[in-house]
Every structure is written in C-alpha cells, then in structure tokens.
Amino acid sequence: MEEVIIARNLTKDYGNGRGIFDLNFTVKKGEAFGFVGTNGSGKTTTIRHIMGFLKPQSGSVQVLGLDAWKDACEIKKHVEYVPGEIAFPDLPTGTAFLKNQAELLKIKDLSYANYIIEKLQLDTSANLKRMSKGMKQKTAIVSALMANKDILILDEPTTGLDPLMRISFMELIKEEKAKGKTILMSSQMFNELEEICDRVALIFNGRIVDIADVNKLKNLDYKTLKIEFNTRQDYLKFKRLKYEIVRDQEKYNQVTVKIKDEKINQLFKTLKNYSLKFISETKYDLEKYFKEKLMEKKEEKNV
Amino acid sequence: MFSKALFFQSAKAHWVKWLTVTCATCVMLAIVIIVLGNLGINDIRDSLKNVFVQADQEATLKENAVDSYDLYITTANTNNQMDTFATLGSSYINGLIADYDAEVLRQTEENGELTSAQKQQIAETCVTNLLENMKQDPTLSVIFQIVDEQELKMLLVNVLKAHDQDASLTGKTLLMEGYYLTVYDNAYALEIADGKTVEEAIIKGEAAKALAKDIVSKLPGKKDDYSSDAANYVNEYMYTTVYNLQLGQGATEDDAKIYATSVKVISNTAISTYQLWQNEYNVDGEITDEELKLAKNEAIKSISDQIPQKVGEALTELGNMDMYGLIIGSIFYRIAGLLLPMVFVIMTANALLAGQVDSGSMAYVLSTPTKRRAVTVTQMIYLLTAIFAMFLLTTITSVIAVWVVGGNNFAINYAEILLFNLGAFLTMFAFAGFCFMCSAIFNRTKYSLSIGGGLTIFSLVCTILGLFGSSVVPSAMRISAMDFFNYLSIITLFDTVSILDGGLSYLWKFGILLAIGVVTFIIGIFRFDKKDLPL
C-alpha cells in the first residue's frame, strides 16, 4: 500500500522537555491513523508539522511525497483540516464563513457541503461569534469536509460535541473512511479512536511509546474471564486445574483466567460442577493495551 | 500572490471601523478649515502687525522731519557764509574759474573731449591751488574758521561743476549752486549706502536739492539762531506735503487736514525732542557729531523702540505667525487628523495577521491552497487600499472645504492642502508598514499591539510634546528643550513648515517615509513566510 504521510525523525524541541522528539510513523493510503495522548504530549505539534505550519527542527514530514514545510501550499490541495482550537475569522454568520471558505477552496458545487450540514443538523445562519462550542465545532467540520479531498486531518474533533452529535460525527467520519479517504486524527478518547482507526499511536512526553494495530486488538484469539466462587473449596479446587491464571484474589475467592477461544467449551463443562457467584469477561481494549505498554516503559526505566 | 476571497473577508471584517474613522476625520477636517476660513483668526494678528507698521511709518516721518530741520539750519548758515565769502573772495573765485577754464581748454586741445572724471581731476587741482593762495591772504584766512577746509574744497569743486552747466552764473549764486550740488550728493550717497537703487537715490537727491532751494527762498534774513524758524518751516512743510499727497490720493479736504495735522504734530514732537537733546548735549558749548547722532536717535524713537527688545521680537514674531499653517498643518494634519487613522491602522494591521494567528483563525485560510505569501500580500494590499481610500476622501473633503472658504485666496492654497494630504498619507503608510511588520513577526496580539501600536502612539505623543519646542510655536510660548521630542518621532519627517515655506526639504523627508513603509512591509512579508505558526 502507498504511504501517504511519512514522518522521519521528526523533532521540535521547545525546551524543558516540551516538544516532540524523534517521531517516526507512516500513514498508508486509505488508512485511519490515530494519535492518543494526554494534554501537552505533542499531538497538536505533530499535526502542525504535517500541515506545514511549523518547521521541523530536524527530521522531516512528507505528504504525498512532498515536503510538508516547503510544499505546504501544494499539499493543501489534497488535505482538509479541522483545527483543535476553534476560532473563526471576523465574519458575521456561519453561512458567510462557509461561503468565504468555499471561495478560498475554489469550490463552486456546495451540494456536498449542504449534505454534511444536514447530517450534522447545523444552522449556518447563526451569528458566528454567538455559536455554542458544539456548533462551532460542526461549522469547522463542515468547512473542512466540504472540499472532499483525499486526506482528512482532525485535531481532537469531538471535543465540545454532545454524545448524540458525537455519534453522528463518528458516522460521518466512518463514511469518509469508507470512501477511501486517508484519515489522521488525534484524540484523548481511546474508544473514539478504537472505533475509527486502523492503527493508533500513543504519544507520551513527545515520544511515540507504541503504535497499536486496533484490528489485532479487536480480534484476539483468547478471552479474559473473571470468576468468583461461592465456596473456598471450589476456589482451591479450581486453582489446581491447569488454567492460565493471570490474577488471583484469594480474599474474594476470585481468579482471572486467560483462555484460548477453542478451550472455552471445555472450561464451561468444568465449571458445571462448581458453585459460582459470577463470571464476567474482562474486555481487553486499547486503553488497557497502552496502560500495559506504559507500565512496561516505566519498569524499563526503573530497572 | 493575491487572494480575492481573503481581500473581501478583510474588507468585510473592517469596513465599519474604516467608515467611522474616515467620516470622523473628514468631518473634523471640514470643520477646521471652514471655521478658520470664516472666523478670521488673523484679525488680532493683523492689528498687532498694524501697530508695528504704524510705528515704522512714524519713525520714518520723524526722521524726515529731523533731517529737514538739520538741512534748514545748515542751509541758513551756509547762505550767510556764502554772503561773506562772495564779498570777500569774488576775485578769487573769478580767478579759479578762469584757471579752470584755461586748463580745460588746454587739455582739450591736447587730448580731445575730456571725460567728467578728468574734469573733476582738473577742478580738484585748481581748488587745491586756490586754497593754498587763500591761506596766504590774511583777510581771507578768516573763512577757514567758519568753514571746514574739506567742505570748502568740496564746495568749490561743485562750484566749478555748476559753472560747467551754466557759465552765466557768477558770485554767490554760483556758490549756492555748488552748495545745492553738495546737498544732492550727500542725500544720494546716503540712499546708496542704505542699499536703495540708483533711481531712488536720484529722486531723493533731487528732493533734498529742491528743499534746500525752497529753504533759501524763505530765509528770514541774517540771524544767529535759526532753530525756531527751522522748526516752523519744517512743520509747515510736512503739513503741506502730506495735505497735498492726501488730496492727490482722493481723500476729502477734512480728512487730509486731519491727517496732515497729525503728521505735523509728530514732526513737531520730533523736532522739539531733537532740540531738547541738543541743548542737553550742548552744556559744554561744543556739540560733536556723535552727540548730534544720539540726539537724533532720541528724536526719532517710536513705540517699537520703547518696548524691551525681547518683547518686541516676540510681538513681531506673533504678528508674523501663520495661524492657519499652525492649526491646519502642524496641529490638524500632524496630530489631530492622524490620531483616528492611526488607531485604525494599529487595530487593523494587528487583526490582519497577528490577531488571526493568535486566535487560530488563520488556520482556515492556510488549510486551503493559499500560500503564506499570498496571505501577507493580500492583507498588505487591503491595508494600503483602506488607508489610500481614507486619505483620498480627506483630500477631496479638504479641497472642497478650501474651495468653500475662498479657494486660492484662503491662507492655505490648493497645492499646499494637497501636499498636506500626501504627507499625512505617507506618514500613515510608514506607520502601516511598521505595524504590519510587527503583526507579521509576532504570533501574539499582545506583543504585536504593544510594540507596533505602542511605538506608533509614542511617535504621536512625542510630536504633541515636540510642538511646544518647534518653530511653529511663537518664541514667547516655546520651550526649546521640548524640541528634543521631535527627534523621537517619525511624524517629524512630515514637514508642514517646509511645505508652507515653499522650500523643497519636505521632498526628501517624504522619500524617507516612503522608504520606511516599503522596507517594513517587505520585512514583514518575508518574516511571515519563514516563521512557525501555532495554528
């Protein structure tokens, strides 16, 4: 697959440990790539480099084979962008802003823009300054998506949206992805990224800790089950069986078992003879994955 | 390089501000010009000026009176001396003329027609010989006690000159003719020394000669003291001259009488003062030329001589001050009229770049295929268009206002008002460039505004303070140390004084303003291409 965005040793040092350091990642054509990290971890700085707003201190970013800094204008013909901070130009209404934006983008056919406006239930005639944060966010999303370009870059696009709006926004992004757009988005929400992205990079203190393949995480060939027994005897008896126990809480007569999918039936047959208080599956998600990775990192450092 | 959409976006964002500032400035300007044009603020100034003009006229009048008085006394004394001289030395004079004629004849035969300089030479030689002979004659040597030898020599040379003009003259008449020539020569020489033209000097000489002849014709007979006769004669003479002059200029008889009488009074005062001071200096029985001069100075003093010199200078300056130039040029175009456009430029230049980078709204422009260079060039063109349109309207307003108050008859003509507008535009162009550069360099509004706007306002404040030290403020109110502030302000390069003086030094200053604007705009544009944008 063709690589649309390539970051090589991308570094921008703002001093005091702030900035981004030695970032390497690639985004393939048609792929949805996510950035996750805490505030100030470097997500926005990275995106600004891709947009050509910042000049790399060392290293480089290439978009479609062009240098993001030098050919910033050329790249914009293929990139649409939803900035993290929403501040509009000094124009009276949403309609005026979108019209102006269409002129800057040199697009004449506004039917797609109208489609998105409807989808997001946006009233563009509202005064631009008086808009709620959610409305502003929607307006920004419309202004980005209306040109229907190949690459979509979003910097924390769902902040300020109510849960329902978030769902229709996610649908919209999924639609864009289905069309074959390459998507790069940052967020503080793991579940959001998990839902849309193919791969997610965790940025911590300006460094990529790990890049996770979301599809692999979703399709694990084992489950993690938490089982609590009513009696002490059953608990001890179960422990003698040869299941892989990842967590053992003696106090509650509780065990957490990691089990291959094909062995599930066998486990339930065994449990028929035990008196259980409950059995529940512990989901293994992105959040968990990255927490583990961070722990590993910390341990490495401590050792 | 130019984005139409962005241009209109900026125009939409700032038109209210632009319109307010432009209207306010135009209205202020129109009011200033029309009100000044109708109120006649120069009335006080003109009356002040009149005081000095009258004082000057009075001084001239008094000087004339005193001079005429002197001439009367000299003429009367000379007339008496000539009587003595003619009786005593008629044979000598006849001899002198004969010698002179013979010498002229001899030299003419030798060298052809003689020039006047050559004749003068012959006359001087003859007179020198004559004077030598006269000194030997005990009866005649008395004359040297009455008349100064040099004066006598000059007189006799003039006698020979007069003889050249009319050979029939003899004796005392000839001597008096010589005296008149001396009077003519003295008056002529004085005028030339005063820097007057030859024509003026000739007129003056002729007038003095005529006056002397008139005096002789009215002499009362031999006296020891002619001072009261002289005074009466001069007063009467001044009266008649002015009276006839007034009638000639179309005044009524009554008016002419009143005016002539007032002149007579002035003349009388001057002569009385002169006589008093002469008596004052005459205690030792001898009056020197120096003392005579002092007495004359006292006599011709006018108001302007009686107030202290510094006050006089200050008042003269106040009288010569150009109030229109000060109020319209130095106060309106350089201070009041600049303030509002300046506020517009500071706010707009900041909002065009730094404001949008700081808020992040620039991201929407730069995430479209619009180059940074296109953004800066478009915003610069917008800013320049806005201030150009603003000053185009103030120019039209000012030209109409000047037309309303009388066009080129107004204290400030069309050319000057156009140059004022051009200067104000160029000043604003320089400020726009500077504010634009700050807006392009800084990502934060607070820095862009405090440096771009701060220094711009600082310049204006310095010009206000500097006004109190500049040459447009009369010296009575001027604090020259305040002039220092003018060196801290770009507005000093907008030289309204030079424009009004008709000098050309404002041109190179305009050039510097233009250069400041061009350079700062270019720095801003290049810097914005290369900097990091937090969008």
Number of strands of chain B: 0
Q: What's the helical proportion of residues of chain B?
A: over 70%
The geometry of chain A reads as elongated
User: Would you identify the regions of chain B where 5 or more consecutive residues have pLDDT less than 50?
Assistant: none
Number of domains of chain B: 2
Report the mean per-residue pLDDT of chain A as an integer: 87
Order of helices and strands of chain B: HHHHHHHHHHHHHHHHHHHH
Name the biggest interface.
A-B, 34 and 29 residues
Can you tell me the residue ranges of chain A where pLDDT is under 50 for at least 5 consecutive residues? none
Biggest sheet of chain A, in brief?
Answer: 6 strands, mixed
Helix-strand sequence of chain A: EEEHEEHEHHHEHEHEEHEHEEHEH
| Main sheet specs of chain B | none
Number of strands of chain A: 14
Helix content of chain A: 25-40%
Structural class of chain B: mainly alpha
Strand content of chain B: under 5%
* Cα gyration radius of chain A (Å): 24 Å
Distance between the termini of chain A: 39 Å
**Radius of gyration of chain B from the CA trace?**
39 Å
* CATH fold topology of the largest domain in chain A: Rossmann fold
Structure explained in plain terms:
The complex is a heterodimer of chains A (303) and B (535). Chain A is an alpha/beta fold and 303 residues long. Chain A folds into three domains: 1-78 and 150-218, P-loop containing nucleotide triphosphate hydrolases (Rossmann fold, 3-Layer(aba) Sandwich), CATH 3.40.50.300; 85-148, no CATH class; 222-281, Alpha-Beta Plaits (2-Layer Sandwich). Chain A is built from eleven helices and 14 strands. Chain A has helices spanning 43-50, 72-75, 94-105, 111-119, 133-145, 163-178, 190-196, 214-218, 232-240, 264-271, 286-302; strands at residues 3-15, 18-28, 32-36, 58-63, 66-67, 79-82, 151-155, 182-187, 199-204, 207-213, 222-229, 244-249, 254-260, 276-281. In chain A, helix 4 runs antiparallel to helix 5. In chain A, 37% of the residues are buried. The mean pLDDT of chain A is 87. With 535 residues, chain B is mainly α. Chain B has two domains: 4-39 and 321-530, no CATH class; 58-308, no CATH class. Chain B is built from 20 helices and no strands. In chain B, helix 2 packs across helix 8 (227-248). The longest helix of chain B has 70 residues, at 42-111. The two termini of chain B are 21 Å apart. The A-B interface holds A 48, 51, 53-55, 72-74, 76-77, 79-81, 83, 85-92, 96-97, 100-101, 103-106, 140, 143-144, 147 and B 3-6, 8-9, 12-14, 351, 356, 359-361, 363-372, 530, 532-535.
